[in-house]
Amino acid sequence: MGPKTKSTYRCGECGHAHSKWVGRCEGCGVWNAVAEELVREPVPLHKSGPNDLAVPVPLSDVSGPQMDRWATGLPELDYVLGGGLVPGSVTLIGGEPGIGKSTILLQVAARLSGMGHTVLYASGEESPGQIRLRGDRLIEDAGSVRVVGESRIEDIIAAAIRSDAQLLIVDSIQTASLNQLDSAPGSVAQVREGAARLMRFAKETGTAVMVVGHVTKGGGIAGPKTLEHIVDTVLYFEGERTLDYRLLRVTKSRFGSVDELGVFRMTAHGLEPVPNPSEIFLSARSTSVSGSAVTALMEGTRPVLVEVQALTTAAGFGTPQRVAAGLNPKRLAVLLAVLERRAGCDFSKLDVFVQVSAGVRLDDPTGDLAVAAALVSSVTNRPTPADGIFLGEIGLGGDVRPMSGSERRLVEAARMGFRRVFAGGIARMPDTLVLVELSHVQMLVPILAA
Ligand code: TYD
Ligand code: MG
Predict the structure, then answer these.
(1) Residues 220-278: tens digit of each pLDDT
(2) pTM given for the model
(3) How far is the CA of 259 from the centre of ligand 1 (A)?
């Protein structure tokens, strides 16, 4: 137990300090904005002599940080991390309970420790015995990973220093707490101060730290939004729990690019990287059924092919339903309106359901044409061509915008055996594919199988 330092209660809205917790800020009157925080000793100006002051240096004289990265040997994880874990950085890995966060971290721990790094796995969620059981299931040999069942951050850091850990895993930030704070584990104050403490530890010692964060119903990492601002890298683990594949997405990165996507499959021996996501996303596709269309998306720097499925059925009483999974419902509404007005499709008495290959989000407007094709295909009950992919953003007039810079998507389409590209126009077509120009949504109907 460390010495008890003072804490105070500060309003997150106006900054007013209180000596004890209050529900309503005495400064600005806002409810539920007051949270505990640590009082830091103010450092007096000029306390230290001039020789102790930081000396500014020309940028050209600054030696760059050695960006050596530790490849974990899990290619999909290294890929989203931009090559591997960066020593001295803090990576937050968020996801719903049971999605596989502890599993992948134990795999990373086992791999890095197998390569000779010292790894400490601190768990406030599970006992060392439970971690051992998980480790025994993996293909990786987790035998040399050090574990500690501890939830006080001060003690976790002390254990990391004592064991000279190069990688520290904290599972999870919601169960870890600082002894110095009175707030309960998982509270805003604990999560924020705990993450800040781990961040300081990582920077000061060059230890790589990976922290598990649970996700709330709304999909955010539980705790203050500031948590994501504190750490260097934020990864989200997503996926349908009933299906066995998992998507790892990077939403913030100080050392690489964001929006990269890694795909894993949960097996009896832990998570296995899936090097060909397009194959998984198209695996369930039935080419003879209406209401399905394929498009190519860029997930970060990587092209993946996904299937868009649409189902339209006679609506019951009241307003017809519009249900979109993996697609912005507003975008669906726009596309339905365009098809009604510009292609003569009547959805007014139909329930409309649209979904994208499990877990993938169709945020890229290039997917518009595939959504439209799937909808028209479902309404007319005629399948889209099995060898075709659809690429293009649709304007309110029903026009399909020409594409540029789509080389990588086309290469992926050709690799996956597609022959025709339905698009508003494409600047450079590879020889392996044929372009079928669709400059307007009206032209969708004639291309569907009779
Ligand atoms: P876990 O890593 O404990 O999830 P989290 O830490 O995100 O809560 O993974 C939980 C699920 O994964 C659990 O239902 C069991 C399953 N699992 C496998 O299918 N195979 C395995 O090899 C392991 C270790 C777990
Ligand atoms: Mg867990």
Answers:
(1) 666 656 688 899 999 999 887 677 889 999 989 888 888 888 999 999 999 999 888 89
(2) 0.80
(3) 24
Give the strands of the sheet with 292-299, arranged side by side. Answer: 292-299, 302-314, 350-356, 322-325
State if residue 134 touches ligand 1 by the CB under 6 angstroms criterion. Answer: yes
CA–centroid distance, residue 97 to ligand 1 (Å): 9
Give the model confidence (pLDDT) of 46-64 as tens digits: 555 555 677 888 888 877 6
195 close to 177: Cβ distance less than 8 angstroms: no
Backbone angles phi, psi at 220, to 5 degrees: -90, 160
Task: Kindly state if the Cβ of 200 falls inside 6 Å of ligand 1.
Answer: no
Tokens of 253: 């990165």
CA distances from 321 to 79, 122, 292, 309 (A): 39, 47, 19, 16
Distance CA 151, CA 132 (A): 18
Is residue 270 within 6 Å of ligand 1 at its C-beta?
Answer: yes
Give the ligand 1 atom nearest the CA of 137: 22
